[in-house]
Design a protein that fits this description.
2 domains, alpha/beta, TIM Barrel
């Protein structure tokens, strides 16, 4: 038995690119897209639509900007649907061209709860251009409940396609995921808006929490190949493909890709389970200091890092 409404979105290149400034080779991105397509992954997110006036194109790879020429070079029609992410405040509206001129199917608007009005404006622009539109409310573990309720209420009045529950810091446990999933689903009763879930793996709970979301009725699931993503990374695409019983999903192409591309990459970039990322997760902190410690601990022990983060906030 399986739920045919479930969709997998692979965000390897977009979220994983936060570990290497999106400096993937063209051939690497092609292989990721091809493996996702052959595995039956519904959406493959190929990067951001970042404003080039705010980000130096010389410091980042092309997945940071997702120009149409680049997207057509690494993706093809008939494979997974192409998704791109547009951050509120970091996206030039003119870069979201009409859908008929683009290989992109979905624009995912990333926002903090306090900027939901701006997210809705950007989402409406993308919708008017002909795209499926998704809104990801980031860092939900830091949001006051009345603010979240208000944001969900505003989104329920739109014609968007999906709204995501995002555990940006890998802080949530299953009980919290259950509570929040029920809240999101109730907010969109009577609308056509689906609910998605994006989990980070700081406490090794990303897959379990995604399953909890599935049990509660969430249909859009984020994953990444070998968990590649910022700091501790994400729920793994291969675990989702193995867990779901839909016969159109096939884990084999992703397993092959992990062996050819991701084992070596992980040993160099070091996403996944590392103590600094775990500490940031259990304390509900942004992983920026943990990422800095992974690059240069400057003699700070794990215990010292925990104590300083606990007592002094994020400045270590």
């Amino acid at each position: 038995m399986y739920r045919p409404q479930i969709r997998i979105l692979d965000c390897t290149i977009r979220d994983g690119g936060l570990m290497n400034d999106h400096k993937f080779t063209t051939e690497q991105v092609k292989r990721v897209f091809d493996a996702c397509s052959k595995s039956g992954v519904d959406y493959c997110e190929l990067g951001y639509k970042c404003d080039k006036s705010q980000f130096d194109v010389k410091k980042f790879g092309p997945a940071k900007f997702c120009d149409e020429e680049y997207l057509r070079e690494v993706a093809y029609e008939g494979g997974s649907k192409v998704s791109v992410m547009a951050d509120v405040g970091r996206t030039d509206y003119k870069d979201i061209i009409p859908k008929k001129e683009s290989i992109v199917s979905m624009v995912r608007v990333a926002t903090y709860c306090k900027e939901i009005d701006k997210a809705i404006d950007l989402g409406r622009h993308a919708k008017a251009q002909g795209y499926e539109v998704c809104v990801n409310i980031m860092s939900v573990s830091h949001v006051l409940e009345p603010d979240l309720d208000e944001a969900l209420g505003q989104l329920a009045e739109t014609d968007f396609d999906v709204v995501y529950l995002v555990d940006s810091f890998g802080y949530l446990y299953s009980e919290q995921v259950q509570y929040l999933a029920n809240k999101y689903l109730k907010a969109f009763e009577g609308t056509k808006i689906e609910v998605g879930i994006h989990c980070h793996n700081n406490q090794q709970l990303a897959f379990a929490n995604t399953i909890e979301g599935i049990i509660r009725g969430i249909n859009y699931l984020d994953g990444s190949v070998y968990g590649m993503g910022r700091a501790a990374g994400n729920c793994t695409t291969e675990l989702l493909l193995g867990f779901l019983k839909n016969p159109r999903y096939n884990v084999q192409p992703v397993l092959d890709l992990i062996e050819t591309d991701f084992l070596k990459m992980q040993s160099e970039l070091k996403w996944g389970y590392y103590i600094p990322y775990m500490v940031a997760g259990i304390l509900n902190k942004h992983p920026r200091t943990a990422l800095a410690m992974m690059k240069d601990s400057q003699g700070v022990s794990y215990g010292d890092y925990y104590r300083k983060l606990l007592l002094e906030g994020e400045e270590v």
